[in-house]
Amino acid sequence: MQIQSATFETSSPDFESCPESELPEFAFIGRSNVGKSTLINTLTNKKDLAIVSSKPGRTRMINFFLINKKWSLVDLPGYGYAKAPGKDREKFNEFVSDYLVNRENRDCVFVLIDSRHTPQKLDLEFTSWLVHYQIPFVLVFTKTDKVKWGVVEKNIGLFKESMADFCDGLPRIFTCSSKSGKGRGEILQFIEQALSIR
Question: How far apart are CA 74 and CA 82, in angstroms?
């Protein structure tokens, strides 16, 4: 897939204000500081499409980006944002779950996992939640250029073992690096195939 255009559409503070659309949507989510904004910019070949911040949890709304005027990339708030007041965290979780469960044109969810770490409780809880609600998702292990490949393989293996406890079949797995562009082509090809099936 060639990215010919990528433009910001709108930000929604809650599920009710999400824009009406019949275009297929591919949502990206992960713990804070997993490299989500960087991946979005890498996929679209735009350095400043999504704001990259050194401070975790900058994404607090659902952000919609129109890609090639044919599909939408949806940037969801990180589920590990810890610095917001308790009620705000609950609100974040509520409207993100509303989007994931109830958005009719939501296609696949890309769950970003930091490849540098062994399986984290939050990541496993979230993937288990997706399995429970039968929401289609794939895993994207980020920052693979930050550690040796053997570490990446080991952590992916451990994650797969942990998922086996609550998931009969494992999801598709991608590995990516913003530095080398690794994984970009594979992810875009996956989206292209999903669009052709629709």
Answer: 21
**Mean per-residue pLDDT for 19-39?**
93
CATH number at residue 191: 3.40.50.300
Domain that holds residue 168: 6-197
Q: Considering the domain boundaries, does residue 77 fall inside one? A: yes
Band of pLDDT at residue 24, cut at 50, 70 and 90: very high
Q: Are 170 and 161 in contact (CB under 8 A)?
A: no
Is 1 domain-assigned? Answer: no
Alpha carbon distance 182, 194 (integer Å): 20
Strands (E), 34-155: 62-67, 71-75, 106-114, 137-142
| Contact between residue 47 and residue 41 where contact means Cβ atoms under 8 Å apart | yes
